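F.,

This is the one I mentioned.
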């Protein structure tokens, strides 16, 4: 094992104990693995799901429910690793209570994917979801670049494979930040980690409702353009930390890192 990885793992082992001590036991996982996913208000009574002009039939709805349970099981291993990466890199963990995407949101996302790509299967749609378990790490501008580099190295040191690395700090318009996805080594489940500054996180929160409206199938092309322009204006005001444009994913064991252009 390379020396730098040995060092990271040694530090990570100590940080894992610290991270576990910081997370109350009732927060270690969102729900027991055997608990069935609660029926949603959009359930039409036939075992399927309806919402926002979208729908899933009973068979597809059941597959999403199974995926939700699998995500909850995987989160038990993932959260201590991410918390340890935060401790080591002196990051603030933002929105930890919302680390699990709701079943309703996942069903909306899958139904949208099926509607936008006729012939696509629910299994293919689920395979493309990276954020069923998601986290946000944040640093002040002056510590952002070094913090992202260290935190991502720690995650790689656990053996988690980086499967997505989208660095949008160099974009002239739109979202600012680094969005990454990792495959947890034991469960094989993919989770998302966003790396932000306070300003970029605020911009993300301010544009969230605009983004949600933009992606609805009922939103007209004219309104979509207007919503995108509003989002671009908000992100344009976000300062770019020194070195942020050059941040790249750490070496991955099995998957090449994908960098956004």
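My design for it:
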């Amino acid at each position: 094992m390379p020396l730098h990885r040995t060092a990271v793992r040694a530090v990570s082992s100590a940080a894992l104990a610290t991270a576990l001590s910081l997370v109350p036991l009732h927060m270690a996982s969102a729900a027991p693995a055997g608990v069935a996913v609660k029926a949603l208000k959009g359930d039409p009574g036939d075992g399927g799901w309806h919402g926002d002009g979208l729908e899933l039939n009973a068979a597809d709805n059941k597959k999403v429910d199974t995926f939700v349970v699998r995500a909850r099981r995987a989160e038990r291993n993932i959260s201590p690793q991410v918390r340890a990466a935060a401790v080591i890199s002196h990051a603030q963990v933002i929105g930890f209570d919302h680390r699990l995407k709701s079943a309703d949101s996942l069903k909306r996302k899958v139904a949208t994917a099926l509607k936008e790509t006729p012939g696509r299967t629910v299994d293919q749609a689920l395979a493309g979801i990276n954020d069923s378990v998601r986290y946000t790490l944040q640093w002040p501008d002056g510590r952002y670049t070094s913090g992202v580099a260290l935190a991502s190295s720690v995650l790689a040191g656990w053996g988690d494979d980086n499967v997505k690395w989208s660095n949008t700090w160099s974009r002239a318009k739109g979202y600012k930040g680094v969005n990454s996805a990792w495959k947890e080594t034991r469960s094989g489940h993919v989770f998302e980690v966003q790396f932000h500054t306070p300003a970029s996180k605020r911009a993300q929160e301010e544009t969230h409702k605009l983004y949600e409206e933009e992606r609805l199938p009922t939103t007209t092309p004219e309104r979509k353009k207007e919503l995108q322009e509003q989002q671009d204006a908000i992100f344009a005001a976000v300062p770019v930390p020194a070195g942020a444009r050059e941040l790249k994913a750490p070496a991955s064991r099995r998957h090449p890192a994908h960098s956004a252009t």
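The first strand starts at residue 49 and ends at 51.

Talk soon.
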